Amino acid sequence: MDPRIEKFLEAAAFGVAGASTDRNKYGNKVLRCYLQNDRKVVPVNPKADEIEGIRCVDSVKSLPEEVKSLSIVTPPQITEKVVEEAVEKGMENVWMQPGSQSDEAVRLCRNNDINVIADGSCILVVLGYEDH
Predict the structure, then answer these.
(1) What is the rounded average pLDDT of the residues 85-97?
(2) In angstroms, rounded to a whole number, what is the distance separating the alpha carbons of residues 16 and 71?
(3) Which of 33, 34, 57, 69 could be a cystine partner for 129, CB 3.0 to 4.6 Å?
(4) Nearest CA to 72 among 8, 7, 2?
(5) Do 131 and 50 contact (CB within 8 A), yes or no?
(6) Where on the phi/psi map is residue 46: left (φ > 0), alpha (ψ -120 to 50), or beta?
(7) Is 88 in contact with 56 (CB distance < 8 Å)?
């Protein structure tokens, strides 16, 4: 396995920026993928109180301290804002899911020593997500 992915998965808890209440959207599937793999996960969604029975936080800045890895499932222009918050929060790892990455967001991660995965790798594939 890619060492960047191994480092990402070592975290005690994970955030999902772009978590969705719609079970057909990737923002929901990524959240459920963590749950299927018995991982502690916190959804980030400013418009929802809870997703899949888990209390949401409204921003990356509101994530608990134990969250050191962040999955991002947002459009690229939103990803850049999310990464700015991740830098402020002191996030150690960021995984931009396919379609959410932007060159500027990747550069921001690298300039702030954040382990970044933005090469088209998908956590759903790596962790073996099953849609049910």
Answers:
(1) 98
(2) 5
(3) 33
(4) 8
(5) no
(6) alpha
(7) no
> 80: burial class by Cβ within 10 Å (0-12, 13-18, 19+)?
middle
Using the structure block, give the residue that is written with the tokens 């396995």. Answer: 1
Q: How far apart are CA 91 and CA 1, in angstroms?
A: 22
**Side chain identity at 72, as an amino acid letter?**
I
Q: What is the pTM of this model?
A: 0.97
Mean pLDDT estimate for the chain? 97
What is the gyration radius of the CA atoms in the chain, in angstroms?
13
Instruction: In whole angstroms, give the CA distance from residue 98 to residue 89.
Output: 23
| 118-122: long-range contacts, CB 8 A cutoff, minimum separation 24 | 118/94, 121/2, 121/5, 121/95, 122/97, 122/98
Mean pLDDT, residues 86-107 = 97
CA distance linking residue 45 with residue 95, whole number of Å = 17
Into which CATH architecture does domain 3-126 fall? 3-Layer(aba) Sandwich (3.40)
The separation between the first and the last C-alpha atoms of the chain, rounded to the nearest angstrom, is 26
**129: which 2 tokens?**
């997500």
The full set of domain ranges for the chain reads 3-126
Summarised one tens digit per residue, pLDDT across range 69-87 is 999 999 999 999 999 999 9
